[in-house]
Design goal:
Length: about 270
């Protein structure tokens, strides 16, 4: 019994040193200023990441439902891994990770009576522009929205300001990794990571190409509970596949519309 207790003490001490080292690494790592979104996306968390969700506790951030990676953009100098089942979004991220700033600057404006098919650029660049033709869409649009056509908030749509912002930022995500895969195929991290899990919401997530109808939420709940490290799971009020806690009403891209958000944090597992 004494030998077993001694062994347990050694393991506990080693685990404690590992956690302490990870915390020290985080404490010593001064996060760079946030990047702005590379493209708008329905349900994106960039606006609320700093206000409502805890800071990452690990050097690595994994977003298994990447979307526009709003949380990772707030801590972009961490080791970021994105996983995305939608091939268009995965391709856009792959393009952004490798593209040169001058290539972004060379993408022309889109006339209000044209579509992205009129652009003489690669398909990924067309999709990138398409995300900027309408606010927070779930997929790239082919033609400008009414707001863009009428010149309402021009800085929010594809043009000089957006093009220059993206060109200034692409060098900052060279170390990011993108995997075109579903969440269950997302590479795990034996050393632990901060998992920001923002799936299509169980009830409201039917607007996506790969939406809530294709997700087994009981399986997703078990998967979230078995990740190594810090797990942050986003959902909408009324979801019950995890014991969520109220987060607050957050602003949406639609005028006078708010969303009742809830969250589940792995650090609460022992209390559940």
């Amino acid at each position: 019994m004494a030998a077993r207790t001694s062994a347990q003490t050694i393991v506990t001490a080693r685990s404690g040193r590992l956690r302490t080292a990870q915390r020290l690494q985080i404490d010593d790592q001064a996060d760079a200023p946030s990047l702005r979104p590379f493209f708008g996306y329905y349900g994106g968390k960039w606006r609320d990441a700093l206000r409502h969700y805890p800071q990452p506790e690990y050097p690595q951030i994994i977003e298994p439902f990447a979307g526009s990676a709003g949380y990772a953009l707030r801590y972009h100098d961490r080791n970021v891994t994105l996983c995305e089942l939608d091939p268009v979004i995965a391709a856009v991220w792959g393009y952004l990770i490798r593209v040169k700033p001058r290539e972004i600057l060379a993408i022309p404006d889109l006339k209000t009576d044209c579509t992205i098919d009129d652009l003489k650029v690669c398909e990924e660049a067309k999709w990138l522009v398409g995300f900027w033709l309408n606010r927070a869409a779930a997929s790239p649009r082919r033609s400008p929205s009414k707001w863009m056509r009428e010149g309402i908030r021009p800085g929010s749509f594809w043009g000089t300001r957006v093009r220059e912002t993206i060109a200034q930022q692409v060098e900052a995500i060279r170390h990011w990794k993108i995997y075109h895969c579903s969440f269950e195929e997302c590479p795990n991290s034996s050393a632990g990571a901060t998992w920001f899990v923002d799936p299509p919401y169980q009830v409201a997530g039917k607007h996506y190409r790969f939406g809530s109808d294709g997700i087994d939420y009981d399986f997703l709940a078990r998967w979230c509970r078995t990740r190594t490290g810090q797990v942050i799971v986003c959902e909408n009020a009324g979801a019950s596949w995890l014991p969520f806690s109220d987060l607050g009403d957050v602003k949406t891209t639609r005028t006078d519309r708010r969303s009742a958000e809830v969250v589940w944090l792995s650090s609460r597992m022992a209390k559940m």
